[in-house]
Amino acid sequence: MKIVRTWPHKIPKGRGHVLDDLPRYMMGGFDYRPFFKHVDDDVLIVEWDIAVGAEHFADMLDLIATDQASVHAAPYRLYTMPSYPGPHWVMRRFDAAGELQWCEDSDTSSHTFGFGFTYVPRDLWRAYEAEIPRRLSWVNDSNFSKWHHLNVAAEVPIPWHIRPVHLHYPVPETARGVCDGSA
Fold first, then answer.
1. How many helices (H) and strands (E) in the chain?
2. How many other C-beta atoms are found inside a 10 Å radius of the C-beta of residue 62?
3. Do 144 and 111 touch, CB atoms closer than 8 A?
4. Average pLDDT value for residue range 139-164
C-alpha cells in the first residue's frame, strides 16, 4: 500500500493546505485516472487540504489492516460552497426517490464518499476503470463512489472514530485581520 497526498498544481487563493512529508502527486484538475495509473498500488489518499491527527492516521491504518480488499473512507465536513451551503459530512445516502442526502451523525454507513482520507484497493480501481464510460471527461470521487455503491458494496461503513479535518472552511468575520496587520 502507498500513502499519497494529492496536490493541485496551484493552490486556490485563500485556501488552507497541509505541509508535511507525505509523498505528493501533482493533480492536473480533478481527474483521478492518471493518479491511479501512476500509483498502481493499493492507496490511502490524503488530499492536499485534509489535516489528519496522528491517532486518527493510526486508526485508519488499523482499519485498513482488518480488511485490505474494501474501501475505507473517513468522514469529514464540507463547508460553505455555492452548491451546498454546509457544513455537511462528505458522506451521502440515496433516499427512497434516488436522491442523494447528506449523512447524519446517526448514520452507520454511506452510499457515496469523498476521497479526502480514503483507502482504495488497486483491484477495485482496476475493475472500475475497466467499466467506466470513456465519454466521462474526468473521473472523481463522486463517480467512483456511485459505481462502488452499484457494483461492489451498497453500504460503506462510516468510521466515526476517525475524524480528519477539511481545511476548506470559512474564516469567522471576528478573526479577519487579527494577524495580518490589517486590524
1. 4, 13
2. 11
3. no
4. 94
